[in-house]
Amino acid sequence: MKKVIIWFLVLLSLAALLLRFSGRLAEIFLGFRETSGISILSDPPDATVFLDEKQVGKTPYENKNLEAKNYKVRLEKEKLVWDGKIKLNGGTITVVNRDLSADQSSSAGETLYLEKGKALTIISKPGEADVEIDGKPVGKTPLSVDLASGDHTILVSHPNYLKRSIRLNMPDHYNLIVAVDLALSEADLSNIATPVISQTQEVIVKNTPTGFLRVRDKPNLNGKEIARVKPGDTLILLEEQTAWDRVRLVDNTEGYVSAAYVTKKNP
To answer: Is the CATH number of domain 196-264 2.30.30.40?
Structure first.
């Protein structure tokens, strides 16, 4: 009888340890891992989902039986692509919502994940974005605020970027982290008054991630691609705008290029 009681106490102590350090000890003693989940949405939908370079399905995609660790995520639909890294925490579901785009600067979206604690944390790219919660300004990113559980609406905005509105349900006893990517504004800048260059000046195309630079018919990301130029090419600068330059190519084609990827040629 004493042996039974001793064994019972040992098992009780082991159970208490497992409850306190459940993640790691459960994996060691019981042979299973704490799982986590992911939910991926995209616009447009029906994008192919890759986790750690393995094709796993189409959006909307959900899997609640994944190992808690860091993952590489890739979404593809025709020429629209997004790549990112996410962290899955044990016993929680991470939500990824992306607007797919052929141009990384016009890509937007957010990732929501949970950690131990009780607060709402908002980070953004670019930083120093203005945040409103339920219509009330609360500060600039990055920020952390106490928020009652339940449904809330977050608005994240930044000059020259499209605003991002996020509807969320704040849980109890967790720190909800929202990582927001804002897209460059696609507003038509052609109506903005800008000084016209009075003398001929040239610009040189700088290196780009794609190995070429698109020439568009309008000074925004929605402009139609009318030509491509290569790093090192010299273009005639016709007009400077905030983020775009109007240029003339060697074949007399005129269009707009991103000012970030050209530099003025010294006289």
So the answer is: yes
